[in-house]
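Hey, quick one: can you model this chain's 3D structure?
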Amino acid sequence: MMTNKPRIFALLSFIALALISRIYLFPHAGIAPIDAIALFSGAYFGRKWLGFICPLLAVWISDQIVNLQFYHKIVPFYDGFYWQYGCYILMVILASFMLKKPKVLSVGGAALISALLFFVISNFGVWAGGTMYPMNGSGLTACYIAALPYLNMAVLSNLICCGVLFGGFELLKYRFPKLAVNV
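Sure thing. Here's the predicted structure for all 183 residues.
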C-alpha cells in the first residue's frame, strides 16, 4: 500500500501548529489544543501508531517547554501523568470511531465528549492521588466542584481548536484534492 506523503505532511503540520500554539499563544489564556490534536489524530490516522503518538508526543514536548518557561526545569513525568495520557489515548480511539468522515456536528460532539471525558478522568486522578482531597465521596465531590470552572474553558477550547484543525484541513483538502486520499 502506498502512502500519501503530502497528506501525512499536511496532517503533521497542522498538529505541529497546534502544538506551537499551546506553547507560545495559549499558555495564559487557558486554551489547550491537545484534546483537539488527539481527536484530529484519531480521525485522520485512526488507530495506527501515528494516531496515538502524535497527541502523546505533543503533550509531552509542550509540557517540557512550558515547564522550562514557567518553572525553569524539566519534569519528564509528573505524578499522575498516566491519567492525562490515558485520556488522550481514549480520545484517539473515540475519534477513530466517531470521526471517520468528520462533519461539523460529529466534530462538535466529539469535542464536547472529550472535554467531559478529560474532566471526569483527570479529576478522578487528582482525587485518587490522595494529596488534595479526603479519600471519600465528599472529597471526590469537592474535587469535581473545584474543577468545574476549567470544564467551561475546556469545552470552549476544544470547540475552537477542533474548528481550526478540522476546518483548516478540510479547506486544504478542498483546495488540494490529492490530500483527500487516506493514508
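One thing worth noting: The chain has one domain: 5-180.
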